[in-house]
Structures
1.
Amino acid sequence: MSILLACDFDAAEWALWRPALQAAMPGERFVTSADAPDGIDVAIVANPPAGALAGLPRLRLIQSLWAGVERLLADASVPGDVPIARMVDPAMSAAMAETALWATLALHRGFFRYARLQQEARWAPHRQRRADEVTVAVLGLGQMGGAVAQRVADQGYRVLGWSTRPAALAGVETSAGEAALAPLLARADIALNLLPLTARTKGFFDARRLAGMKHGAGLVNLGRGAHVVEADLLAALDRGQLGHAVLDVFASEPLPPEHPFWRHPRVSVLPHVAAQTDPRTAAAVAAANVQALREGRPLAHRVDRVRGY
Ligand code: NAP
Ligand code: GLV
């Protein structure tokens, strides 16, 4: 099969991805530009340039190397009748669970506050709480949120999980649907966002929802920047409604140097690294779908275009 690689990788990333993909799919032919568009069967994509997937008459699979596919779905030039599969890799879920656990521990134990106090050479210990006295809400219980909820619950926190369809997770109090959301946010000391970006979740953390959170709560956004109305978050932090925000994703990435998040004392910025796709494991995930296509078996991790994830 001919596989188009439409990825915005730099040279260092290509140096990792090319051999990993080639090793996972030794019999396949890879191209990086569709010089012969009639021959392309599969596109493996990571932030493809707009139009890169148009005019490929034989295309039968778009395999994303990203878990979140909102950009692909928003690109009108991506053919609507070709299945899109997203990246689902346990190694990525494990990395996400590590990031979420780090943020949860740091918020719970006040480590971000102590880092601020260090800047002022202030010695000001606070009383510490046990993990089981801290309530953590996990929004989205899919591949990422499920792993996060489990990891944080294993650490002894009280975990409340939320999704659209009822879910069951050991050690996690789960609820589903809009009506369950406000009571859950009102109880949470820490909210971890692992929702996909869809029409229903854009601007999710706006002034109204932030005002409904527990006073002084921590917000950890590991989903997408557009889940948060940035001006509303800044206002909520400035009036103390929220205690601290840990942000891995932003409306505009890279985060512009002049953005107030960089220097806000109650914001911790990460450069979209909560869970990176790792070619060492993800190439095999893509290869399994290419093999399924070759053998006429159902594709794994197909995106539901109506739901948007
Ligand atoms: P997933 O497996 O598709 O799970 C999505 C979860 O969100 C499901 O539990 C789903 O509930 C829930 N959900 C969706 N819309 C909802 C709504 N309107 N209200 C309540 N719950 C809703 O996705 P995933 O693999 O866990 O990834 C989630 C997101 O994480 C990705 O879309 C991406 O944006 C982000 N991500 C970020 C990074 C990073 O490095 N920062 C890395 C990877 C992924 P139902 O299934 O019940 O509908
Ligand atoms: C990263 O943000 C991803 O969606 O894979």
2.
Amino acid sequence: MRHTRVSDLLSSTTTLPEINAKGWVRTFRNNQFIALNDGSTLNNIQCVVDFENTPDETLKRITTGAAVSVTGSLVESKGAGQKYEIQVAKLEILGDSDAEKFPMQPKKHSLEFLRENAHLRVRTNAFGAIMRVRSVLSFAVHSYFQQKGFVYVNTPIITGADAEGAGEMFQVTSLPLDNLPKNEEGNIDYKKDFFGKHTNLTVSGQLEGETFAMALGQIYTFGPTFRAENSNTSRHLAEFWMIEPEVAFNDLNDNMDLAEDFIQYVIKYTMEKCSDDLKFLEGRLLEEEKSKPQAERSEMGLLEKLNFVLENNFKRVSYTEAIDILRDCTPNKKKKFQYIINEWGADLQSEHERYLVEKHFKCPVILFDYPANIKAFYMRLNEDGKTVRAMDILFPGIGEIVGGSQREERFDVLVEKMKALGIDEEVLWWYLDTRRFGSAVHSGFGLGFERLVLFVTGMTNIRDVIPFPRTPMNAEF
Ligand code: 4AD
Ligand code: MG
């Protein structure tokens, strides 16, 4: 008999005479009640074992973490807490789990301990919920763009370009590191490398994405990106997933409209599909916040916070206005910020972004028109000659969740800018072709998928919303 998923059994509308379920034991109470979980839902199904007619050796093997198969009937539960339970007629132990050694005990574990056991933490309620929400969110991303007729593009993972010009790249090579070939000048001879040139893991698919937008109109990427920035924070990963839409003929305002509509859609979709998991995560967050001083607790519960984002427009504020607010705010005057804002042109740190979102505006904020010299080379220069058509979306508890811009479509201006920044035109000859042949206004943005998952799940460390996090000094699993 084929087994039925626990989620289907729990949502059954009738009792069923004969079913089979397979899963892992969460707890086994009174030698009689198994809480069985198969990952299809947060909820366990209660399996009532006929302990009088089950050999002792078998009962002893029903331990937390063991894989079991139960055959029996789905009956109305006599106990409180569930509508249906399984009256077990036949129980088979599929895989034993030594109760003494199994790390996921039925008790509260620290998030740090769970990170060290990332291969098993997904067997806990919280991580099961987070990973199901993550899966639904990624489907929502595709659903949004596909409905709107965007073309999904797989941009390369190995590339010769540094899209962000920030030099935070992992190199890719097949050269022997202990015996590197040298050229006449004594430098490493990358002509002898696998690709005959210097290559790295991509930091962003944007530049390749732009070439596709200039033919297909509206495209999006959704893939892994890699950054060798040594920031050991709760918001940074060395390997993260990014969603990058790019749209021909969109200006910066259209770009903001798209980003806002997109984020609201995926959150709404996920709230509809994952209500059990999100309710559980809301409770988890509430519990976690109890250990914090009152002033640091969030004013809203998780679901209220998500609804707030759906129901309110994001506040659009220029960089210049934001600097005025920050310069005059109390933490700046009292020197509470680590980086004091003195003048226009300062790069905003996450403390400033969070002040704007959490204390000043108290809603998601889109900052736009940043100083040119703190942003990437490809952004459209404004008529003032000193700001670019950039936008960052800032979220409460997260800080920057989206970075995007209208692109510099003018060949001469772009080349000028690249020269000033020392970006090699030869390397990006193909990118410049988009400006040589049929150039047009276009815009796009990148959304850090894990930062979105953080926001939606109410988790606070980015290491807890990706299956196997890669961070400085950590590439286990
Ligand atoms: O702001 P970023 O660097 O922008 C780009 O890469 C552009 N090429 C996007 C575009 O216009 N197509 O990165 C975009 C987003 C950030 O806002 C942030 O959410 C996320 O990617 N991000 C990270 N997420 C996790 N770990 C990191 N180290 C991240 N760096 C950026
Ligand atoms: Mg950015």
